[in-house]
Inverse folding.
């Protein structure tokens, strides 16, 4: 899992979809929306994703402190496939 802040936060620009499994209600639909709308300059930008339900917005708001944002890394985004990182 690609995380920062000593393994406690999910990087919205570089983590793959599997990293969201521990957050209730995120995997796979909300996590997919987050990934599709990246990159982000700041964590709060996830609240502006088009088409979010009220429940999804509430889940995001309640978990903002679980996320961080770093510049997109070529190593983690190559092939533009953060949905299937090839980990089986």
């Amino acid at each position: 899992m690609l995380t920062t802040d000593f393994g406690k936060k999910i990087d919205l620009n570089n983590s793959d979809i599997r990293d969201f499994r521990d957050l209730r209600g995120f995997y796979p639909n909300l996590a997919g929306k987050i990934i599709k709308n990246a990159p982000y300059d700041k964590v709060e930008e996830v609240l502006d994703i088009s088409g979010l339900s009220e429940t999804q917005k509430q889940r995001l708001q309640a978990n903002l402190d679980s996320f961080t944002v770093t510049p997109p890394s070529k190593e983690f985004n190559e092939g533009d496939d953060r949905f299937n990182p090839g980990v089986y």
Notes: The first strand starts at residue 3 and ends at 4. The chain has a mean pLDDT of 86. The first helix runs from residue 29 to 36. The radius of gyration is 12 Å.
